[in-house]
Amino acid sequence: MAKNIEPSLVKIGDYLKLDDDTVFTIPEYQRAYSWSIDNCDKLWQDIIDYIESDNKDSYFFGTIIVNCQDNDTKYGLIDGQQRTTTFLLLLKALLLRINTAIATTANDEDSIKLFNALKERRRRIMSILYKVDAEEIEDTPNISKDKEICSKADIIENYSINEQYKTELNTILKSVEYSEAESNAIKLPRKQKDNKYTNFFRNFKFFYGKCSNLSESTVNQIVKSVIEKCEVIEIKSWKVEQAITMFNSLNSDGMPLYDSDIISAKLYAVAEKMGEGEKFTSMWKELLTIVSELKNMRIADIDSILTQQMYYERAKNKDIVNSAGTVDVTVPGLRRYFTDINKDILNNPIELCKGMINLSKIWRKIAVYPITQVLLKFNENTKLFLASYFYRFDEGEITEEIVKPLLENFLKLFTILELVDTGYSSKYFKTFLFGEEAKLVDPSITMDEITRNFDLHINTNWDKKAINESIMDYDKHILVYLNEYLVAKERGITFNLTSPYDIEHIMPYSTNIQTIRKDAGIDTEEEFYSIVNKLGNKILLEQKINRSIGNEWFRTKVSTKLEEKTGYIDSSYPMAKELVEKFRNESKPYWKKEDIKNATEEASNRIVGFIFGA
User: Fold this and answer.
1) How far apart are CA 318 and CA 322, in angstroms?
2) C-alpha to C-alpha distances, 228 to 11, 59, 220, 337, nearest whole angstrom
3) What distances in angstroms separate CA 260 from CA 17, 209, 306, 339, one per listed residue?
4) Does residue 211 or residue 336 have the better pLDDT?
5) Which of 123, 277, 463, 535 could cross-link 134 (Cys pair, CB 3.0–4.6 Å)?
6) Are the C-beta atoms of residues 94 and 219 closer than 8 Å to each other?
7) How far apart are CA 582 and CA 579, in angstroms?
8) Contact 123, 247 (CB under 8 A)
9) Can you tell me the distance from the alpha carbon of 474 to that of 603, in angstroms, rounded to the nearest whole number?
10) What are phi and psi of 157, to 5 degrees?
11) CA distance 93 to 88
C-alpha cells in the first residue's frame, strides 16, 4: 500500500545522517550544482549572525522534498540538492578545522571541556559524512584510520544528465586533508586562479578558508549550531510525480526555478513510467549538449528551444486563432502551457525530445549562414517563427538555399521595424507573423506563397519614399550589417561575422580632429554631428584592423600597410574592399561630406530595392 506524504521538521544533523544502506540521489533531470561563492557567503553569514544573536530558537533553512525509492534506500532530492550538497561541503571544511583544533587544544584541566566537545563534534560529523558508528572513530585524527573511514560508501549518488562533474563532491569528501582534495580536484582547461575549479571545489575552498580563521571554541560552536540548531522541513514522498508536483507548487513563488527544470522532470517521470527512462535520459543529455553549443553561439538556451516548441505546437493546432476567427497574439507562460494548457504533449517524451534535438541541430547548422548572422542582429523574435518552418525538415535536408528565401523575408520585415515608429506588438508585425505562422508549419504551403504574402504585406503598408527618407536619416548601427550583406551579395563576395569586428566610422567620430574635419569640407561642429553617424560613413571592420588605425586620416586607412599598422586593404569585409578599389588610383584620397552623402544614398537605394524589390 502506497505511503502518504510525510513531512517532518528535523535538525540538519538528523536530516543528513543516513542509514548504512541509504543514499541521497540526484535524479537524471536535476540541474547541475550551481551554487556560487555568493550563495555560500550568504549561508555562512546567516549562520554567524544566528550564533551572534544568541537566539534560543532554531534557524530554519527551508523545505527539502525527497522522493523515496527502492524500499526507502534511495532518497531522490527533488528539491534541496543545492543546499544538501553545500551543507556536506561545509561539514567537511569544519571537520578539517576540528582535526587541527584537537591537535592544538591542550588536554588539561582548563581545556578539557572544549577538548572533549571537539572530539564529540569530530565523531558526529564523520558519522554523518561516512555513515560509521561513533565507536569506530578515533578521538584524535589518525591519517591511516581516517583514510579508511573516508573511503566508505558515498553519501550522494549523482545521476543528473546536466552535471558534468559527478565525482567531484565525493572526491572532496573522501580526502583526509585539504591538500589531497586540492590535488585531486578537477582542473578546468584554459581557466585561471579559482576559476579553474568546479563549483564544488570553489565552495569547499571558500568554507575551508573561513574555518581556518576560527578559534577552537568558535569552530566548536559553529558545528554545534549547524548540526543541532539549524532545521529543515523534510517532506518525503513515495511517488515521483507527486514529489515533482509539490516541487512546482512550493517553488512557484519567489524561488529560482527554471521552466525547463519542471518540464524535464515531468517528461522524465512519464518516460520512466513507460519504461523508457534510460532512453529519455540519453536523448535529453544529447539535447542539452547541443543547446550548450547554441548558448555559446548566442543562439538559444533550453528555455528558448522549449518556447519555440510551444509556438510550433500552437500554430500546428491552430491555437493562435480565437473563437472569433481572428489572430490571437496572447502567449501563455512556458510552464503553464506544457503542464496545464497542453499537458498531453508530455505523454510523448521521446518524440518531443526527438523533435527538439532536430530543431537544435538545424539552428546549429544555419547559425553560420551569413543571412542568419545578419537577421539575428535585428530581432530575437524571428527565432520563434522560423522554428515553426524548420519543423518541416530533418536536419540533414537543410541547406542555405532552402532557408534563405524565408530568412530574407523576415529580414525585409524587420528592417522596416528598425526604421519606423510602429512597435513590434502592432498588427503590422506581431499579428501578421502570428497569422503567417500557421502557413509556416503547413508543408502543403510553398515558400513562393509565403514570399508573396510577405511582399504583399510590405508593399501594402509601407511606402518606398518614406522608407528611403528614414534610411537617409538613420544614425544607428543595425543597418550597417544589412548594407554589408547586400554589397557582398551584389559583388559575389564572401561575407560572415565570425571573427571579432567593430563598426568603423570612416570619418572618425571625434570632434577633436579639426584638420580631418576641414579636409572633409565640414565647417561646424553641428554639421559634423549631423553627418558623422550617417549610414554611408559606417562600415564593418575587423577589430584588429580598427584598433590599429584608430583615428587616422582616410588616406592612411584606405592605403597599403604603413609600418606595423594595417588598413582597409587587409579587410575581408565588402565595404572596406570596395573603398580600397574605388580609391586605389588616387595618390592623396580624401573622404568628404559629399562622399558620405553619396554612400548613404547608395546604401538607401540598395536597402529599399531589397525590401520592395528592385
Assistant:
1) 9
2) 6, 10, 12, 43
3) 31, 35, 8, 11
4) 211
5) 123
6) yes
7) 5
8) no
9) 11
10) -115, 125
11) 9
Q: Is the pLDDT of residue 255 over 60?
A: no
Is residue 573 within 8 A of residue 541, CB to CB? The reply is yes
DSSP letters for 204-228? HHHHHHHHHTS-HHHHHHHHHHHHH
Within 10 angstroms of residue 478's Cβ, the number of other Cβ atoms is 16
Taking only the tens place, the pLDDT of each residue in 323-359 is 666 888 888 888 889 988 998 999 999 999 999 999 9
* CA-to-CA dists, residue 450 to 23, 88, 390, 394, 437, angstroms: 57, 58, 14, 20, 10
Helix (H, G, I), strand (E, B) or coil at 6: strand
Whole-angstrom Cα distance, residue 490 to residue 350?
45
pLDDT band of 598, cuts 50, 70, 90: very high
Looking at residue 409, its amino acid is N
d(CA 373, CA 479): 13
pTM of the model: 0.74
Judged by DSSP in three states, 505 sits in: strand
Single-letter amino acid code for the residue at 329: V
Produce one character per residue of 453-471: b if its CB has 16 or more CB atoms within 10 Å, e if not: bbeebbeeebeeeebbebb
Are 244 and 262 within 8 A, CB to CB? Answer: yes
Partners of 504 in beta bridges? 539
Question: For the packed helices 432-440 and 302-316, what is the interaxial angle rounded to 10 degrees?
Answer: 80
Residues 10 and 231: beta-carbon distance below 8 Å:
yes
What single DSSP character describes residue 381? T
Report residue 236: phi and psi, to 5°.
-100, 135
Between residues 390 and 329, the one the model is more confident about: 390
How many CA atoms are closer than 13 Å to the CA of 74, on its beta-carbon side? 12
Rounded to whole angstroms, the Cα distance separating 386 from 440 reads 8
Please write the tens of the pLDDT for every residue from 127-164: 999 999 888 898 889 899 999 999 887 899 998 888 88
Element (H, E) at 96: helix 81-104
The H-assigned helical ranges of 367-510 are 370-375, 382-390, 400-419, 432-440, 447-461, 464-473, 478-491
Tens digit of each residue's pLDDT (9 = 90 or more) over 18-55: 998 999 999 887 888 999 999 999 999 999 998 888 87
pLDDT at 253 over 50: no
100 Cβ contact list (under 8 Å, min separation 6):
none
- CB crowding 485-510: b at 16 or more within 10 Å, else e: bbbbbeeeeebebeeebeebbbbbbe
Residue type, 22: T
Q: What are the tens digits of pLDDT across the range 289-311?
A: 999 999 989 999 999 999 999 99
Block residue for cell numbers 570612416: 506
CA distance linking residue 75 with residue 84, whole number of Å: 12
Distance CA(392)–CA(381), nearest Å, equals 19
Using CA atoms of 127, 133, 135, 140 in order, give the dihedral in degrees to the nearest 10: -20
Are 611 and 415 within 8 A, CB to CB? yes
What type of residue is 292?
Answer: S
Distance CA 387, CA 395 (A): 12
